[in-house]
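Q: Predict the assembly, please.
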Amino acid sequence: MSIIEVKNLTKQFGDFKAVEDVSFNVAEGEIFAFLGPNGAGKSTTIKILTTLLSSTSGEIKLNGYNPIKNPDAVRHSFGIVFQDPSLDDELTAYENMEFHGVLYGIPGKLRKERIEHLLNFVELWDRRNNLVKEFSGGMKRRLEIARGLLHHPKIFFLDEPTLGLDPQTRKHMWDYLKELNRTEKITVFFTTHYIEEAENIAQRVAIIDHGKIVALGTPQELKEKNNSNSLEEAFLSLTGKTIRDEEASSTDRLRTRRRAWTRK
Amino acid sequence: MSTIYILWLRQLKRYFRSKSRIIGSLAQPLLFLLALGYGFGAVFQKAGEGSYINFLAPGVIGMSIIFTSIFSGMEIIWDRQFGFLKETLVAPVSRFNIMLGRTLGGATVATLQGIIVFLISFIAGFHPYNWALVPALILVMMLVALLFTALGTMIASLLDDMQGFQLIVNFLVMPLFFLSGALFPLEGLPKIIDILAKIDPLSYGIDAFRALLINVSHFGLSTDLIVLGAVTFVFLSLGSYFFSKIQI
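A: Predicted assembly structure:
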């Protein structure tokens, strides 16, 4: 059974088609990688799937629900780790979890149990009363994973979750996620620029470029089809070698300023 | 309901944790009270208007409320910058409740700030004419705080980033404060200033503070409350409309 169904999805900003006639399905319990160069349409697709953006046309179903008609049912169905940290730095790790639990309507006692379980799972229980601003990048990521799982989502979206993390932390993180996928049968949908991560972890991979899906299949299939030794080679032969420049959006400007303002 | 509560609580926690912000935001009202209060005191007295400190204190309370409120409302821009806004926007709760919780939180913080300034004004020699009216004063403070937090929310929902922030301060917050009659009586003003003061919602807030604190009022307390209530309703409606249109 498909837990994510996308049919002929198109998103247009003015004259520009960010996503054009994209179709794919993700099976329940699958680990699915969504790859593409900068500006290819990855983030736009994720935003539409996660109800942050509306589509121009096409049909989407998450866990059987339509994000436009039934946004709250969709929102209960997924957890997400965004590309940039989205924690409240002035709150403690525990308070960030608590905030999320209340927003998702998890009753008090159950909330407590799950927070303890998940903070132990990502090895942050001992630091639960520390303010998040004292955390390192890797710790923040772990906390975000724990938070995204608090309401027991069926689908877990991760938008470049390993960006800026050292290899040790990255390995650790994927170990967590694989473990979750194995034990809880949670569907993992992720994007990354580290193609070898997709090759090692994903059961299936979609490659999107210029708003269109250019390849879809298991890493093995994609390598064979493109006569490549690695998925990275296949990726480059499909999407070309020119460097993509995205126009800086206001969010990018904010990010730049944010980097200048935060000490770490 | 729990959504509104947790967002309200978050604003309060953030406020009480930033000690430097609390102290910093009290320096300005104190300076206004002492420097202007004593600086213009003699002239004011000679003009036959009575004690300037008594006249000024409600204005300075209004000042601290408008500044804190608008900036609290505009914290949404920071949340967008620090990514936290997305966390609330993908949650299965209505945007109206998110907006309301934040706005109530910001308004509570601004009211607390106003109460602290009220207490500080005693140092400068201010005293209310009737202590029994202080609870009513606090309620009006909340109304004024709500009005301007909603305005801050509205502005923040329309701005992309902090670029426009200085512009808002200089062309909106400052004029709202200076034209409100916080520093001078609204009687006998030139036509243009008189009109601007009448458009400025803060004028009615400060006028209500004066009515309750020193028993002096330009518009009359009931007019003040009607105007404040109506404008608050409009700003809350517009604020939640624009907030619901935010795209990340």
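The two ends of chain B are 25 Å apart (CA to CA). Chain B touches chain A through 29 residues (CB under 8 Å).
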